[in-house]
Amino acid sequence: MNSAPLPFLPMTRPTIDEDTIAGVCDVLRSGWITSGPKVKEFEQLLSQLFGGRPVRVFNSGTAALEIALRIAGIGPGDEVITTPLSWVATSNVILAGGARPVFVDIDPFTRNINLDHIEKAITPATRAIMPVDLAGLPVNRDRLYEIAGKHGLRVVEDAAQAFGSNWDGRPIGSFGDLVSFSFHPNKNITSIEGGCLVMTTADEASLAEQYRLQGVIRSGTDGMDVIRAGGKFNLTDVAARVGIGQLRRLEEFTENRRELASRYFDKLDTPEFKSLGLRLPLPDFERSNWHMFQVMLPAGRIPGGRAAVMDALRDLGIGSGVHYPPIHLFTLYRGLGWKPGDFPYAEEAGCNLLTLPLFPAMTRDDVTRVVLALAAVLQTLIPS
Ligand SMILES: *Cc1c(COP(=O)(O)O)cnc(C)c1O
Q1: 104 lies in the same domain as 185
Q2: Which atom of ligand 1 is nearest to the CA of 133?
Q3: Residue positions annotated with a catalytic role
Q4: Probe ligand 1: pick from 66, 82, 87, 355, max atoms within 8 Å of CB?
Q5: 110 located within any domain
Q6: Ligand 1 cavity residues, CB under 6 Å
Q7: What DSSP character marks residue 226?
Q8: Which pLDDT tens digits describe the chain residue by residue (384 residues)?
Q9: Domain end (from 231, 247, 263)
Q10: CATH code at 120?
């Protein structure tokens, strides 16, 4: 029996509803399309979500991180402790500010920075810890802030992937030091491009506004001053309106992702996949927003490695992704002194982790389809 081929299932896809599209059209017709009332509204809604803390939005998550480091006063001669298993933005922003990243290997179970090894990496030059909640699974905030407090360090949370995650019921971003999120289309909510920074004080929010737009400080009807050189990192009202539409769906998006992730566990947590050497992520359905569903392949047992699996899945109409090659092995970072073997768990994850499709509009049948395809691909590729 022949049936029509199923449409390609991407690794992720944003859900933009008709109300948001209509809202964007309204903004475009309004005569005010760059930063204005929609940016203010988006910031207020975000602040509500984070318990009233000050929030400012930017044109990327990367900008939010760079500005967080500037607000924390981190620059040349300073060290920032972070994970080698992240999107390269995490450590690029440290270099961009003139500081030096200090990598601490991941915990192979959470795939996040191993908090047990942070204290060994602290030197007199250490100024901050920048943890990443990979795939949305939050780093242990109790331990993180205990270590930071004990050593007088700032924390710049790169929570780009953790929008909608929580630590013991408290939303990530609603507590802590400087917390940065990204609204890139692949993230749990999007403003096309964009990001935000959650801060603690009004002074920090004022600095964020200055760094965001040329250092400009306005006063009265016609007053303007510049004390420090800011950049050009403001979000447009068009983008903010997309973000507002997404925010309304946050709970639904997170619920769908958790439900689909749980479906993956039902189908993948079997003796068959175990014997094929597949390793699953931590089954957390309380804290994680399930930004990604990442399995660890037995790539060493597969001729052609992970790429062969990805190619075969693509031939079956299924997208997959790599998150991430370890940062310290990029040419730029090797040039700064890092080498293979420095962070073995991050390197193993970098070679073996595969991100499977997971996004709010996916169905339970889509999960079944991915799992059946993965089983077929592994059985074909792994020599018995
Ligand atoms: C996406 C992401 C960023 C950067 O966000 P952009 O909006 O793309 O600039 C930084 N860190 C992590 C961990 C990310 O996933």
Answers
A1: yes
A2: 13
A3: 187
A4: 87
A5: yes
A6: 60-62, 86-87, 89-90, 132, 158, 160-161, 182, 184, 195
A7: E
A8: 567 788 999 999 999 999 999 999 999 999 999 999 999 999 999 999 999 999 999 999 999 999 999 999 999 999 999 999 999 999 999 999 999 999 999 999 999 999 999 999 999 999 999 999 999 999 999 999 999 999 999 999 999 999 999 999 999 999 999 999 999 999 999 999 999 999 999 999 999 999 999 999 999 999 999 999 999 999 999 999 999 999 999 999 999 999 999 999 999 999 999 999 999 999 999 999 999 999 999 988 999 999 999 999 999 999 999 999 999 999 999 999 999 999 999 999 999 999 999 999 999 999 999 999 999 999 999 997
A9: 247
A10: 3.40.640.10
For residues 277 and 316, what is the distance between their CA atoms, to the nearest angstrom?
21
The parent domain of residue 326 ranges over: 250-381
In a domain, 329, yes or no: yes
Q: Does residue 7 form part of some domain? A: no
Taking the C-alpha atoms of residue 238 and residue 190, their distance in angstroms, rounded to an integer, is: 12
Atom of ligand 1 nearest to the CA of 89: 10
DSSP string computed for 299-362: GGGSTTHHHHHHHHHHHTTB--B-----GGGSHHHHTTT--TTSSHHHHHHHHHEEEEP--TT-
Whether 196 and 292 share a structural domain: no
**What six digits make up the tokens of 239?**
């983008």
Spatial separation of the C-alpha atoms in residues 272 and 313, rounded to whole Å: 19
- Closest residue by Cα to atom 2, ligand 1, is 160
Same domain (yes/no): 240, 339: no
Protein residue whose Cα sits closest to atom 5 of ligand 1 = 61
112 is written with which tokens?
């996040």
* Domain count along the chain: 2
User: Which atom, in ligand 1's list, is nearest to the CA of 183?
Assistant: 7
Euclidean distance between CA atoms 253 and 50, whole angstroms: 18
Q: Name the residue of 66, 156, 157, 158 to mutate for ligand 1: max ligand atoms within 8 A of Cβ.
A: 158
Q: What spacing in Å lies between the alpha carbon of 308 and ligand 1's midpoint?
A: 27
